[in-house]
Amino acid sequence: SGLTRGSNPTIRTNLASGNYATYQAGFDLYGIRPEKRGQTPDFSYHIGSSTYRSNNYREHNAERLNNIAVDLTYKDTYLSYYKISQHLELPGGLSWQQVWQNPRQSQNNTDYNNQDHDILQLGMKHNLSKNWFADLDISLKKMDGIGTYGQYPFNEERQTASVNPKVSGIINFKKYSVLPTAGIDLSYCQYKRNSDKVSQNQGSIYGQFIFPITPKVSTILGSRYAQAFYQISASTINTTIKPINRAWINSLELNWQ
User: Fold this and answer.
1) Among the residues of 112-207, which ranges form H helices?
2) 3-state helix vs strand vs coil in the chain, percent to 5
3) Distance in angstroms (rounded) separating the CA atoms of residues 41 and 35
4) pTM beyond cutoff 0.85
5) What does the alpha-carbon distance between residue 37 and residue 46 come to, in Å, rounded to a whole number?
6) For 171-191, what is each residue's pLDDT tens digit?
7) At 242, which helix (H) or strand (E)?
8) DSSP string of 50-79?
9) Tens digits of per-residue pLDDT, 125-173?
10) For residue 13, which phi and psi values (nearest 5 degrees)?
11) 243 preceded by cis ω (within 30°)?
């Protein structure tokens, strides 16, 4: 049997009085395999695209937003890619007198910010045993931007990577079940604006236990330890930031359902 294809194209428009105008359009394509009813699909996909246009009411405040999404799933593994392009004009703030005179006016006709985002996500699940499960999520993000603010041009770039493994389980005790969870969160981020650059490495380890007291009341005990390392190469960014920050947080909650 082949793929079951289904499409759901949508076109939406919204026009209001005055000069405020908005336009939206989108398209989605889905598929699964196998196509037999009652059988869990091994493979599925989603491909979507959307566009958005608006003048955002004010002068020099037009916005264009284009999105592309691709989602692939094979059994307990998924892969997703998203492309987001945003073009935004920045009109600047107004005083109360200017708002009273004309709330649509802009402070300038030069400021803008254009950003392109690329996002790649990979995840998988694995049953270690009947009552224990492992999850892994990996994310890569990249942003490139260009613009002008206060009549000063700038270029910006952000790169982010994260890895999040987690183990969870079920411990049966008499007629109740204890739910333990433990994981590690690792991330790296670098942001550059013109010649200024800031990078951050962050890591944390956490654990959580959910203890049932009654069928409706449970206690949640959690703990997380985190470290963040900063590296700054900038003349205009606050350099009083500590190069290493550490935090240890413990929590005890009472949950009623």
Assistant:
1) none
2) 0, 70, 30
3) 7
4) no
5) 19
6) 998 788 899 999 999 999 999
7) none
8) EEEEE--SSTT--EEEEEEEEEEEETTEEE
9) 999 999 999 999 999 999 999 999 987 999 999 999 999 999 999 999 8
10) -130, 150
11) no
